[in-house]
Structure prediction request, 242 residues.
Amino acid sequence: MKIVFTSNSSWSIYNFRKNLLLRLQSLGYYVTLISPESNYQNKLKDLGFECKSLEINSSSTAFISNIKILFNLYNTYKNIKPDIVLHNAAKPNIYGAIICRILNIPVVNNISGLGTLFLNNKVSSKIGRYLYKISQKKVHTVFFQNNDDMSLFLERNLVKKEQSQLIPGSGVDLVKFQPYEEKQNEIIKFAFIGRLLRDKGIFEYIQAAKLILKKYQGKCKFYVLGELYKENPRAVTKQQLN
Prediction:
């Protein structure tokens, strides 16, 4: 049985979906991964996965760019002839579902977050929400990782209740990430880990840090670990980071 897993980032596949895909592989499924080209594809190939490169610009709203994604997904899925396709990001969820509907391929979508499509009323966001509505009609299963996102999709009739399932997040590899024993009288360290976008709560984190440091000066430290995304309109600027 052939399974295709499509995402807008091979880094994301390797770090967040690797164990799931290895499990599918161990059960005898042939897994093909589709994502933009990067060094992480080589790491995934070393694990025995077939990898195909396909440019999926998650932030571009250009008409030609999005038509190109549709065209490339159609050709790729038609050539592979998968038994089922798993999607794991907004554009694959939307465009991949449309193509699978045309090719009559079963689809499972994972909506791990809403992104900017649901944070403003720009024309591009309205179009994106409409595309979500028409693209999810024939999707076999749509996974949500929190109840708020699922409730919003149901309220706006973007998905049907019978095709929606709630799962408890992406999961954590407890072999790789193990808790350490708490040590007394240490400085408490907090870390913001994520993309440096306004929508991720970076400014709220900094405001909270100011309030706590004012009360517990010398007892806490706050760190920011993330990457600047210049191409994203909601990104923190280098000046703001400084």
About this structure: The chain has a mean pLDDT of 87. The longest helix spans residues 63-80. DSSP finds eight helices and nine strands in the chain. The helical segments are 10-26, 40-46, 63-80, 90-103, 123-135, 147-155, 202-215, 238-241.
